Amino acid sequence: MDDFNMEQAKRVCGDVAGLCSWTKAMASFFTVNKEVLPLKSMLALQEKRLEGALAELAVAQGQLDQKQRELDLVQAEYDHAMAEKQRLLDEAEGCRRKMHNATALIEGLAGERIRWTEASQTFEEQINRLVGDVLLATGFLSYTGPFNQDFRNLLNQNWRRELVQNKIPFSDDINYITMLVDNATLSEWGVQGLPNDELSVQNGLIVTRAKRYPLLIDPQGQGKVWLKRKEAENELQITSLNHKYFRSHLEDALSLGRPLLIEDVGEDLDPALDNVLEKNFIKSGSTYKVKIGDKECDIMNGFRLYITTKLPNPSYTPEIYAKTSIIDFTVTLRGLEDQLLGLVILTEKKELETERTKLLEDVATNRRKMKELEDNLLYRLTTTEGSLVEDESLIEMLNVTKMTSNEVREKLNVSVDTEVKINAAREEYRPVASRGSLLYFLIVEMSMVNVMYQTSLRQFLGLFDISMTRSQKSPQMQKRIANIIEYLTFEVYRYTARGFYEVDKFTFTVLLTLKIAMHTKEVKPEEFQIFIKGGAALDLNAVAPKPKKWIQDMTWLNLIELSKLSQFNQLPDQITSSDRAWKNWFDTEAPEDSVIPDGYDKLDTFHRLLLVRAWCPDRCIPMAKRYIAERMGVAYADGIITNLEEMIEESDTVTPMICFLSMGSDPTDNIERLAKKMNLKCGAISMGQGQEVHARRLLSVSMQEGRWVLLQNCHLGLTFMDELTEIVTTSKGVHESFRCWLTTEAHPQFPINLLQSSIKFTYDPPMGIRAGLRRTYALLTQDQLDISNLPQWKPLLYGVAFLHTTVQERRKFGPIGWNIPYEFNQSDFTSTVQFIQNHLDEIDPKKGISWPTVRYMIGEVQYGGRVTDDYDKRLLNTYARVWFSENIFTDTFEFYRGYNIPKCRTLDEYQTNIDNLPLVDSPECFGLHSNADITYSTNTVSSMLSTIVNIQPKDSGGGGGETRESVVYKMADDILQKLPPDYNPFEVKERLIKMDHLKPLHIFLKQEVDRMQRVISNVRTTLTDLKLAIDGTIIMSENLRDALDNIFDARIPSTWRKMSWESATLGFWFTDLLDRNAQFSNWLFEGRPICYWMTGFFNPQVLLHWQYSLPTSQIHAESALVYFGFLTAMRQEVARANKYALDDVALTNDVTKLMREELTKGPTEGVYIHGLSLDGAGWDRKQARLMEPPPKLLYTPLPVVHVSAFSQTIGEKNKPGIFYSCPVYKKPKRTDLNYIFPLMLRSAVDADHWILRGVALLCDVK
Fold first, then answer.
1. For residue 115, pLDDT beyond 60
2. 288 - beta bridge partners?
3. What pLDDT is attached to residue 386?
4. Pairwise CA distance, residues 797 & 803, whole Å
5. Could you give the residue ranges of the DSSP H alpha helices within 588-742?
6. Which helix (H) or strand (E) is 899 found in, with range?
7. How far apart are CA 858 and CA 244, in angstroms?
8. What are the residues whose beta carbons fall under 8 Å from the beta carbon of 882, sequence distance 6 or more?
9. d(CA 665, CA 659)
10. pLDDT higher than 50, residue 1104
């Protein structure tokens, strides 16, 4: 029933609920019990059956236990038999394994058996030679660092000789590189950027193995790049001595154990480094300390110190040499060539260079791996205890080593074959690298011409990359190579020559052409030596006499030297037999363009240049230009013109542009004009004391706003230049339009870093009167032109401008122009113009211009204020006297034909008239003879060749493969054989007593003989010692080194020159020595000469020049203090003979019509002198007066001159006619020290003519 449940029962009654619960339980019990009763019956039945089964199981279990006991006995017997079997198997396997291990060990070590056996046999010999080898290696590490490869080899030879003498055994084939470093390390160095030439590898050895800290002479930065890569993993700290945190960097590197690189030091080091360099370390417990100033710093393992300098030839003190290991890291020709070859391949055959670089890295890794495996194997073999065949790990290592070694060896063999193939492909591009290396080292040589000509290797490599990129492409490899070389050569020439002064640009071009020709074997070394030296080393008395007098001495020596070449071996004989044809050729206006006699017209251009250089040095430049145009191209012969716009394209914000200033040059206007054209602002500051603050401010503003900065006259602010370099090159966030311009004069202390990180250019002003007048009038304004209404103003202004240009242009002619090259500048012109203006404002119209005042102010004050030489002052006053007079206002007035004063009103009209002036001026425009152009050209060529000689490497040999030392040794032998014997002082004294030694001229002779004896003794001692030094018997001192260099260059050694006389070449100097000595010897032993050779005296001067009122500044100081002048001695003799008072006696002279050979007896009073030559004028022997010189005849011999003295009280005989007071100089260089006295020469024209000509008499014209 549905409603019979607990909920309903509880709701009705509690008792009903209980009844309900019971009823449900009973019903449930009934249902369960009905199922359980049958199961209980079944359980009883099954229990009975179980009892029966268990009884049966007990019986069966008893039987099983019996069988198990039987089985256990049998199993025990079986296990014992199997254990015995396993033991026997294990013993067999162990024996077999030992045999296998022994076999593997024998086979594994068999490959090393031969090598180790041979090595063991040599160990005893090596131990015996160890002392000598270690001595050599120690000497190499300690002493060879500062020297080049040749000198290192020489040191090595000397050390070996010492060891042999001291019977210390050493290895004949010792190689410091293989002895001190392994191949794997060498390979790593190569990957890190160290050039692989022998010198660079040796330098790497000294850096890493020497005990002292290294100081690298590293102008190109090669060593610094290598160190940076080598120490990059060790957290290298880079600093400099002038860095504001230098001390902190040093202390951090010491205390943290990091390597420290101090870059770009000068010739002095910071004293704070002394204790570090000297390793004055203080032990404190287990660590070390060092005192830095007043602070102690810990030194941790890992600290290494490297120092570099960019100075190419620094002069370090002995203390620095003792504290550091100085190493010459200057890049070598071969090293740079290999580096450039890598760059070429990287551009042209990138995959080839990539493969090669990977190959080098793999080879380095493999070699290192082989070495490690071998070292580990040897270590295990020596440390294994017990039997080797039982060491499984050793055998396993040996197998791995063997397999790896075979793999590595195969890889190395493959790499060798691959390297051969790669190198063969690379070699095809070597001509490009060779040309690049040649060009770079030529640029380095030019830095010896002027310290400002600095070009960094980084800049050069930039040009090299540009050339590779921009040169014309070609599928043909040879054509492509030619294109690269052509573009590279001109690009380097253009970039470099732009930064040279005008005087050096052509020198660089000539040297570039000749170096390339020598590299391609077109020009031989001996031909190059003849071109630059000529016959300078020859003795005029030792060669065949010249056939005709018209041939100059130097020309003949040049021809004799030239005849040593096969093409010219018959030249002296041909000149002798065909002298008229050669004279006609020589006299032509342009011999280089004329047909050369005796078939020499068929010569190629270079040998034609050699012939022209020997005959006509003044025509050498046009001939050289032709050779350059033919060999290199017309663009090289035409020269380079500075283009500021091109420079702007090349520059960037971190590359300053430096202009080297010269006389009259100033690029300011051009720079400001270009800035205006580009719509940029340009701020200028003239550097000097206190200008640094303004410069910093201007730089800061300009960098932010994109302006240009022009710092002028930076040579006056050198202390700011290092800071400027850092500001420009390291500043961040600089506006892309910012540019930094600098102007400076050449200065030896100008920072090399700044020069090497900048673009350099010169702005030499154009030469000539037209260019000078244009420059002058460009600085004038129309207001200045109209400032005065007087008609005299504009002509006088033009006259002063013409004078200003003339006095500047006259400098280029050398001594014949001005004795001293004065630096006339714009301020002289401005002050003179201002004076003229003031004078015109104040003149009385009736009296007119006071010309004496104008001339005095020009000649003595405005321009004359700069003039220190009396004869230059006379010249300047002559210009003022000749040009500045009333005649200047006439229509017929001309400074020279075609150079008159234009009548103009505006500046444009003046500029138009000036533009119509000739482009090339004759020397006669300046008052000189046309021959002055020859003098100018000759001096230019002489300066160029002298410069080339100066910068030639000092370790080069002479022609024919001879070394410098062997050439000089032969020359020393030759000079010693010809050197006169010493004077015997007792014999000299005896001869003088017989001649009356108290006479003034004999006192003078004694002094001259004493000086000559000192010269002879010095020459003999120097040459004897030099031969011993070359042989290695004595040390090559500084003086002997100077003598060796100068004798090789055919120049006079410094010690000889200081105590003797100047001369153009060593050959002429030695000829003079013989001739001077002959005059003294003949005078001493044969009596007074009829005529005296004026050139042959040390001291020909007159000590007192009363007659001509010359200042004592022109008297040789040494003569005044010590020596008795020749002419003074003559004056004294005349005074004594005639009983004149010495202070009343003055000199007089008369030029005879006789030459030296025509004299038969001496004068009754005074002396005859000869050997004088006129410079700037000729001599008419018939009329005995000055005349214009013939064309091309620079020096005219003067006949014998009779020089005597007279009493000024009595007076001198009147000599009718016009006389020119002509100064006499000992040498062509007209300085106070060379001045002797004036001679009065008769003239048909006014003396002013010869003053403007610059006429003088020279004792020596060589």
1. no
2. 283, 299
3. 64
4. 10
5. 605-615, 620-631, 634-638, 644-650, 668-677, 692-705, 718-730
6. strand 899-900
7. 54
8. 1248, 1252
9. 10
10. no
* Structure-token pair, residue 25: 């339980």
Tokens 């610094």 sit at which residue? 224
Residue 815 pLDDT exceeds 80: yes
- Beta partners for residue 744, in sequence order: 660
d(CA 590, CA 559): 19
Q: How far apart are CA 273 and CA 293, in angstroms?
A: 9
CB 1023 within 8 A of CB 975: yes
Which tens digit of pLDDT belongs to each residue from 517-568? 999 999 999 999 999 988 888 888 788 888 888 888 889 999 999 999 999 9
Question: Are the CB atoms for 1034 and 1028 separated by under 8 Å?
Answer: yes
Task: Single out the residue of 766, 798, 811 nearest to residue 926, CA to CA.
Answer: 811
The total number of residues shown for the chain amounts to: 1262
Tell the residue number behind the tokens 């860095």, with chain if given: 243
Cα–Cα distance, 793 to 954 (Å, whole number): 60
How many other CB atoms are found less than 10 A from the CB of residue 1124?
Answer: 18
pLDDT digits (tens, 9 = 90+) for 256-273: 989 999 988 888 898 889
Q: Quick check: helix, strand or coil at residue 12? A: helix
Distance CA 855, CA 861 (A): 9
Bridge partners (DSSP) listed for residue 1207: 1145
Q: Which of 1001, 946, 1050, 918 is nearest to 1167 (CA)?
A: 1001
Which residue ranges form the domains of the chain, and what is each CATH number? 6-144 (no CATH), 183-331 (3.40.50.300), 447-636 (no CATH), 651-762 (3.40.50.300), 769-920 (1.10.8.720), 962-1088 (1.20.1270), 1090-1107+1120-1261 (3.10.490.20)
Calpha distance 744→752 (Å, rounded):
13
Query: Of 1075, 1203, 1199, 1198, which is closest to residue 1127 (Cα–Cα)?
Result: 1203
CA dihedral 307, 311, 317, 321 (to 10 degrees): 40
CA distances from residue 120 to 114, 171, 396, 744 in whole angstroms, order as listed:
10, 17, 26, 68
Query: Do residues 269 and 222 make contact, with C-beta atoms less than 8 angstroms apart?
Result: no
Mean of the pLDDT values across residues 971-981? Answer: 93
The whole model's pTM is what? Answer: 0.76
What is the chain's alpha carbon radius of gyration, rounded to the nearest angstrom?
49
Q: Which helix (H) or strand (E) holds 1257?
A: strand 1256-1258
pLDDT bucket at 206, cuts 50 / 70 / 90: very high
Per-residue confidence at 958, pLDDT binned at 50, 70, 90?
A: very low
CB 1158 within 8 A of CB 1206: no
